[in-house]
Amino acid sequence: MSVYFGHYGYVELTRKSDGNIKTSVVNSGDVNTSRKRFSFDFDTGFLTSGDRIEIKSTDGSLLEFVAANAWGIGTKQTAGSWYIHVDELGGIRLYSTFDAALEGALSSAITLEEIITAIPIKVTIVNDIPNILAQCSYFELNTNRDVVDTTALGDEFRSQFSSLISGSGSFRAFWDYLPLYAKAQPGENANYLLQLAIRTEVGSEFSGKFYLKAQNTGDGNATSYNDEIWYECDAVISQAGVNFTPGNVVEIAADFVTTGPIRLRAKTIPIDKVLQEDTGDIRLEQDTAASLLKEFPD
User: Fold this and answer.
1) CB of 64 within 8 A of CB of 119?
2) Which of 68, 130, 175, 178 could cysteine-pair with 14, CB 3.0–4.6 Å?
3) Neighbours of 116 (CB within 10 A)
4) CATH number for the domain whose boundaries are 6-12+132-267
């Protein structure tokens, strides 16, 4: 029997929003080219550092305030999608990667250019990139199933019928607001959970994967070393807080409730042979003793 420890798991979050679109105008005075910063009117909490947004002009004009090299084709377009960093005054910098957007450094921001004519725009949050919750020290996921009492008069034993499924849970992480890395991927810093709980305009929803067993973990058994087992669900943050205690590491704690289906998924190592429908091997013509194998990347 294999015994697994908690460090075999982790939490993977994908930011979500309700699809709200914000329309505004970028004026010439809203663009600061030396600071690679621009602004437009939006409510506090609508955008958060690390969000990926699509900016599109509503009159068909080019996004002249963004340098041409911000697009892969090297020419300015009427729409573009970038990660953003939002400063304390609501100013925005554009970045090509998630971790750079969290850091918000001037040197890695996308270059902006001065404009003369105002550009009407609409902004949509298009988050769809999963990121590991950095420095997560604990998570819990509970599934509950309601039951309906169907006992009838005269029954000798109580009978019940299974009803709706719901879920809830919590996680804790060491508090940080700078980009971190886990498993060679940019990490979602724990400060985002605090921001998520107070986002009133786009909601506090996220999509989560809660890994019980990750790849490259286990007891050394080659047949299960790369297996993955995880729960998958959409949820909303119902409570978030931060714990400051002298002499201890600062931690955040967040509770959530699920908003849809809860799936327990597994991905195991596939067999390396390509089999026929009757499970027999596909033999090679040049060597009838050899089987056709799948090709795997290194």
Assistant:
1) yes
2) 130
3) 6
4) 2.30.110
**What percentage of the chain exceeds 70 in pLDDT?**
83
Query: What pLDDT shows up at residue 41?
Result: 87
The amino acid present at 151, given as its one-letter code, is: T
Structure tokens at 167: 């879920």
Neighbouring C-beta atoms of residue 246, cutoff 10 Å: 4
The whole-angstrom separation of Cα 170 and Cα 159 is 33
Domain residue spans of the chain: 6-12+132-267, 17-126
Q: Around Cβ 121, how many Cβ atoms within 10 Å?
A: 22
Question: Taking the CB of residue 277, how many other CB atoms lie within 10 A of it?
Answer: 5
User: For residue 120, with 0-12 CB atoms within 10 Å meaning exposed, 13-18 middle and 19 or more buried, which class applies?
Assistant: middle
Alpha helices in the chain (DSSP H): 98-103, 191-197
